[in-house]
Amino acid sequence: xxGMNQENSQQIVFEEDFYLNATAGNERWNEVSILDERGIVExxxxxxxxxxxxxxxxxxxxxxxxxxPWINPQVIESKSHDYIYELVSKIIAKxxxxxxxxxxxxxxxxxxxxxxxxxxxxxxxxxHLLTRETTASLFDSLRENTKRSLDKAQRxxxxxxxxxxxxPELFSVxxxxxxxxxxxxxxxxxxxPLTRLHQALIQNNRGTILGITNPKGQVLAATLLxxxxxxxxxxxxxxxxxxxxxxxGTMAIWESIKFAHNMxxxxxxxxxxxxxxxxxxxxxxxxxTPYSRISHSTSKxxxxxxxxxxxxxxxGI
Length: 317
Fold this sequence. Notes:
Blueprint: H1 17-23, E1 30-35, E2 41-52, E3 55-59, E4 70-71, H2 73-78, H3 81-94, E5 100-104, H4 113-117, E6 121-130, H5 135-140, H6 144-156, E7 160-163, H7 167-180, H8 188-203, E8 207-213, E9 219-227, E10 231-239, H9 248-262, E11 266-268, H10 275-282, E12 287-297, H11 299-315
Helix pairs in contact: 1-8, 6-9
């Protein structure tokens, strides 16, 4: 055993073929694999590759928040750090030519040293993780204002949780949330991959939509949950504007946490670095957990960005 994080050996749902095919399509994601002499995959790296305006970019496929290099568990068990660093170096060497690289690595894939040696840069971001022994201890750890919000939702407003809410209900809630936060409208281009992803998650038993409903059966808040063998991820969610003060948003997160607990998995809030969202998440007393955003840009890309920014400035965009 070389002491590397064992979770690094576990495949995360975002790099599974069914997930990538649903969100990105067969032609919008790529991978680099390193095989041993027997043809067994020792390491794998998934990414998107696009060329636009003469610039080649390696990044994240749609609806994929984190990735990073996967290392075969047998390699982690039997090989040295130097051997694994060499595998990652081989991945980097096999990447297609690019002008800009930007990808967020899963928090369990924290060793980015080989990328540093190759000239890449790293920025730390934070997600939040939550696991407790019992549901009672989960509730006891909540902040008082979060408990009051839950009490309002359940006792005063008689809200209930429904698992397996139809996709249009989620999309309606997301549209409402986007409009309220002045994030624009959810376009058809965003709806189509979300629809495909939801269908693929259901078919592969890797996700569900959890809804909070009032006594009339109306969905006031909803979350799209995705899971793998270790984590339940909060991928998307929102609450209707008219229901902000009902406690529905708090209850949606709380029921999502309980759902993960019942599956014996860690709940991953998937961010956020936004101060107001971070403050809301911290009401559930999760553990702030860093993950890496790895980037690299050529001088050609940097010049293009500077020229683009100057153009926006002069045009007042």
